[in-house]
Amino acid sequence: MRAFLGLLLALAIGALFWWGMQTKDERSELPSALAGRPAPTFDLELLPSSREAWGERLNLSDYLGKKPIILNFWASWCYPACYEEAPILEATWRRWKDRVLFVGVNTQDELDAAEKFIEQFGISFPNVYDPRGKVGIDYGMYGVPETFAISVEGRVLERFAGTISAEKLESMIREVLP
């Protein structure tokens, strides 16, 4: 009888896990409190792989008013979501980099692991290092990955939580273009 109950419990847990994997990420439907408001600025060190092209630090306020910005929060431990969207972000950045600035915010991660992630995916847009996750708190982040679209005027227009698709990313870009 105990073996039967144990098997029944294991099957129930397995079924719940399977069901949970089939449902979409509900975070994507949570609205951002920042919608329409000025984007919180930050001044953070760039990851070493970004420094040659972008300098030692990135101050977001230096770019507001110049180009729209796609801000993506990620971590190397965010598997599989961040691994699935990294090639999409890089390919889209390469297509739009003359008109839109992409900025990655590596959050609550180990520096070595973050660098390996950047190298693995050949990420060329600037990525800052936020080991304590302060910027994510300022943006009201629910978890990684999350992507924010910031207008050229510096206002948050949209937030997407979860693995971003190429179609959704293109939609966010079209929304921020002047």
From TrEMBL:
GO biological processes: cytochrome complex assembly
Main location group: other
Alphabetical list of SUPFAM superfamilies matching this protein: Thioredoxin-like (SSF52833)
UniProt keyword list: Cytochrome c-type biogenesis, Disulfide bond, Redox-active center
Molecular function (Gene Ontology), one example: antioxidant activity
Cell compartment(s), UniProt: Cell envelope
Family annotation (InterPro entries): AhpC/TSA (IPR000866), Thioredoxin-like_sf (IPR036249), Thioredoxin_domain (IPR013766), Thioredoxin_ResA/DsbE_sf (IPR050553)
GO cellular component: cell envelope
Domain Thioredoxin: 33-178
Entry-linked PANTHER family: THIOL:DISULFIDE INTERCHANGE PROTEIN DSBE
Protein name: TlpA family protein disulfide reductase
Source organism: Oceanithermus profundus
Organism phylogeny: Bacteria, Thermotogati, Deinococcota, Deinococci, Thermales
